[in-house]
């Protein structure tokens, strides 16, 4: 009886703690901007990303710290630039808050974070 109870408790614990995907896991996939359908971002499980629009393609690495997404650009004139923003995922929607550039190309520190582009919404591409 004790053995069966312990097994049942382990099953409940695995369901409660292991049943929900982390924010990082939920971010993985292809997302298309609701306001601009030509803009899309793909976040991969290996923590690389590619962002595309009609005129630009960027790629780099990403990580999640709490409710903030941190992206480090790996290509082009923005190579080495670090941007961060708060974000959330609800259903098939990805919501970005205020973006901040916290470090510019080639490791130059930004005295005051440059704030830009707030309130973007993306939908998960199928």
How are the SSEs ordered, and which strands pair?
Layout: H1 2-18, H2 23-27, E1 29-33, E2 40-43, E3 48-52, E4 57-65, E5 68-73, E6 82-90, E7 93-103, E8 109-116, E9 121-124
Antiparallel strand pairs: 1-2, 1-9, 2-3, 3-4, 4-5, 5-6, 6-7, 7-8, 7-9
Structure write-up:
By secondary structure, the chain is α+β, with helices and mostly antiparallel strands. It has a single domain, classed as Lipocalin. The chain contains two helices and nine strands; from the N terminus they run ααβββββββββ. It has helices spanning 2-18, 23-27; strands spanning 29-33, 40-43, 48-52, 57-65, 68-73, 82-90, 93-103, 109-116, 121-124. The chain has an eight-stranded antiparallel β-barrel. Strand 7 (93-103) and strand 8 (109-116) form a beta hairpin. The longest helix has 17 residues, at 2-18. The N and C termini lie far apart (47 Å). Mean pLDDT is 78; it is low at 4-19.
Fraction in helix: 10-25%
Shape by Cα distribution: globular
Q: What distance separates the N and C termini? A: 47 Å
Ranges where pLDDT stays below 50 over 5 or more residues in a row are: 4-19
- Our Rg estimate from Cα atoms comes to 18 Å
Quaternary structure annotation: single chain
Question: CATH-wise, what's the superfamily?
Answer: Uncharacterised protein PF14869 family, DUF4488
CATH topology: Lipocalin
Number of domains: 1
Structural class determined from secondary elements: alpha+beta
Strand content: over 45%
